[in-house]
Design brief:
globular; alpha/beta; 24% strand; 7-stranded mixed β-sheet; 43% helix
């Protein structure tokens, strides 16, 4: 999926509280080199730059990198943004003091390769801090419905379960061979709107997942069915009878070499 389609910069604003928590957890020291893997529009990289870090953001979506560069310029921040995949980071060995990823590396098709790359570019005394969704709740169900619709339209069979980046044991098994010990704590992020329908309108018009789904489903006459399914999911999981609120749980994981 091309994360550059749609209007992800609007979606990224919803994730800023999580980015702040990840950067807080990193306990940055002035002058450290921070690498934001799957940086998107640069949430974490820009926050790190505000705190005096030398920030580098890496993402495969060229348009989002342009947005990140513009935001850095508008805010007077020094940050570098380069195109690249999590499984093949365009960085030298041990170049990063802190490797961050806010809901970015978790979408890498090859978790082991991505983890190996983050470990490779992180200095021996460095640390990795990332956030990962816990796959449950209303927003998770909404995303799953979209992915399944895309899979059916593209004629792809349902794949296996994605790597459980939220699971402490799985993360330890992933990063332990690279010399890292892992600590995990759970956090929450609330998504809000004036109503379930209004939330769906924004998501369906801006989120790259929905833009991708629409391009595949419209020729098949299947968009409305997905919208009805999505609205039912949002209404069932709504926590605010006077508007819309859905709380998603996620983890912040910190890995340091032992």
């Amino acid at each position: 999926m091309d994360w550059g389609v749609g209007n992800y910069e609007q979606i990224a604003e919803q994730l800023l509280p999580a980015a702040r928590l990840v950067v807080d957890e990193a306990s940055l020291n002035g002058g450290e080199h921070v690498v934001d893997v799957g940086c998107g529009t640069g949430n974490a990289a820009l926050l790190a730059a505000e705190r005096g870090a030398r920030a580098t953001g890496v993402d495969p979506a060229a348009r989002l990198l342009e947005v990140a560069r513009r935001l850095a310029s508008e805010r007077g921040l020094e940050a570098t943004f380069v195109e690249g995949e999590a499984a093949a980071l365009p960085l030298a060995d041990a170049e990063s003091d802190v490797s961050l990823s806010v809901f970015g590396v978790i979408f890498s098709p090859d978790a082991r390769a991505a983890a190996a790359e983050m470990a490779r570019v992180t200095a021996p005394s460095g640390r990795i801090v990332l956030s990962a969704w816990i796959p449950e709740g209303t927003i998770s169900k909404l995303a799953r419905a979209s992915r399944e619709a895309i899979g059916r339209a593209a004629g792809r069979p349902a794949g296996g379960r994605p790597f459980p980046w939220h699971d402490p044991e799985a993360l330890t098994a992933l990063l332990g061979p690279h010399g890292f010990g892992v600590g995990v704590r759970e956090e929450q992020l609330a998504f809000t709107a004036s109503s379930p329908r209004d939330y769906l309108e924004v998501e369906s018009s801006q989120h790259p997942l929905w833009v991708t789904a629409r391009a595949l489903l419209e020729p098949r006459g299947e968009v409305e069915a997905l919208r009805e399914q999505a609205l039912a999911i949002l209404e069932e999981g709504n926590e605010d009878p006077d508007g819309f609120r859905a709380t998603s749980c996620y983890v912040v994981a910190t890995a340091q070499r032992t």
